[in-house]
Amino acid sequence: MNGLPGPGAGAGAGGPPGSTYNPNDPNIKMLNNMMESCFGKAAVSGVMGFGMGGLFGMFMASMAYDTPFHTPGTPGSTPQPIASLPWRQQLKVGFKDMGTRSYSTAKNFGLVGLMFAGIECGIEGYRAKNDMFNGTAAGCLTGGILARSGGPTAVAGGCAAFAAFSAAIDAWLRQPKDDE
């Protein structure tokens, strides 16, 4: 027993001998229905984006210490170089900065994933087609919405950049695979 609820849990590769995948299992049906809904796709994309953004932010924060780093001081005072602090204080400042950057990046990635997946699913449901236009249009709308505070030029630039990136990724994912 692998601890998963429901009959036939753990079936498939590595499952107990004699167990099979049962598409009529209520748990399987519930998961399939959730992943077929726009809300479910958007929620999963947001959560996965948050996790990936957190890891990416942690990595990028760890690479950001190639220049002299100063601790924030009180307004009007000169900041202290981090190298002049005791070792524990350096670690405390570094980890606090890494956590702040990771959380910020995680929120941004999560928001982009949530918005893009939700908009793309809505467009796909409205058009009743699964083609490259859905991702490109969702990229344009997502980029425009994210850049809305920068004015019309930023909205147009965000729309164009996200649409181009979405189209490039979609084209790459839709190309036939070589089975060599």
Written overview of the protein:
The protein has 180 residues and is an all-alpha fold. Helix content is 64%, strand content 2%. The chain has a two-stranded antiparallel ribbon. β1 and β2 (80-81) form a beta hairpin.
In short:
Helices cover 64% and strands 2% of the residues.
Question: What topology emerges from the helices and strands here?
Answer:
Elements: H1 26-36, H2 38-62, E1 70-71, E2 80-81, H3 87-127, H4 132-146, H5 152-174
Antiparallel strand pairs: 1-2
Helix pairs in contact: 1-2, 2-3, 3-4, 4-5
Distance between the termini: 38 Å
Structural class by sheet pairing and helices:
mainly alpha
Strand line-up across the major sheet:
1-2
Main beta sheet, described? 2 strands, antiparallel
